[in-house]
Amino acid sequence: MKTDEKKNFFENVYEVVRLIPEGRVTSYGAIAAYLGAKRSARMVGWAMISSHAQHGIPAHRVINRNGLLTGKHFFGAPDAMQKLLEAEGIVVADDQVQDFDRLFWDPAKELL
DNA sequence: TGTGTGACGGGCG
DNA sequence: TCGCCCGCCACAC
Question: Whole-number mean pLDDT of chain A?
Answer without folding.
Answer: 88
